[in-house]
Design goal:
Layout (H helix, E strand, L loop, with lengths): L4 E8 L2 E8 L8 H12 L7 E4 L2 E2 L17 E5 L5 H35 L5 H30 L8 H43 L1
Parallel strand pairs: 1-5
Antiparallel strand pairs: 1-2, 3-4, 3-5
Helix pairs in contact: 2-3, 2-4, 3-4
């Protein structure tokens, strides 16, 4: 059985790096594990790396290193360009925006959980309408936050050659759009439940 941890030597430019790679969750180390370790050691982001072993380029990130014959003590080579300080500065902005997305997502998740609780009758009927109105307000706040984040991402003007940043930006836009769709869904769920309560109350009055 192949080892979970391997140490290899990777030549990058005139520097040789001794890289120890450990597989995730007790699995064998993959090309992705090596790529992540090289990004840490050299500052070359994964998308810009070309890892070569015995004249072959290791492209399949999910493939195990052992399947390419890479084992303890092997020598590999990497070519690739580090991000410029300017691109790193833009990447940092995107990472900060990512944190804002996570915070807003947690708020939305909380609202969704509380709405499920209300639907399951965890609150007295006469208190539900007030609780739903509060939830509605919180969803609108979360939705506004996501819209502001989207504007923030949109305002970032990235040069064509900032590939790493452009990929991250594209991914973030997709994530935020998905959360906005979720906000709409939760808002619709609140309106729906509120309408049900009001129609029941009307029936009781009649």
């Amino acid at each position: 059985m192949a080892e979970q941890t391997v140490t290899v030597t990777v030549a990058y430019g005139s520097t040789k790096h001794s890289i120890t790679v450990t597989g995730q969750d007790g699995s064998e180390a993959t090309v992705k594990d090596l790529s992540d370790a090289l990004a840490q050691a050299t500052g070359v982001p994964a998308p810009s790396q070309k890892i070569i072993f015995k004249g072959k380029s290791l492209k399949d990130m999910e493939e195990k290193l052992s399947s390419f014959g890479v084992k303890q003590g092997c020598k590999l080579m990497m070519i690739g360009k580090r991000n410029s300080p300017e691109e790193e500065a833009e990447l940092k902005k995107l990472k900060d925006i990512e944190k804002s997305v996570e915070q807003a997502a947690k708020k939305l998740e909380k609202v969704d959980g509380e709405l499920t609780g209300l639907k399951n009758g965890f609150l007295a009927k006469d208190l539900q309408a007030e609780a739903l109105n509060k939830l509605d307000h919180r969803v609108k706040v979360a939705s506004e936050q996501f819209m502001k984040i989207l504007e923030q991402i949109d305002s970032l003007s990235l040069p064509e050659n900032f590939n790493d940043c452009r990929m991250k930006k594209k991914g973030l836009v997709k994530i935020v759009q998905d959360f906005l769709a979720q906000c709409d869904k939760v808002e619709a769920g609140i309106s729906d439940h509120l309408a049900k309560i009001q129609s029941k109350n009307m029936a009781l009055v009649d």
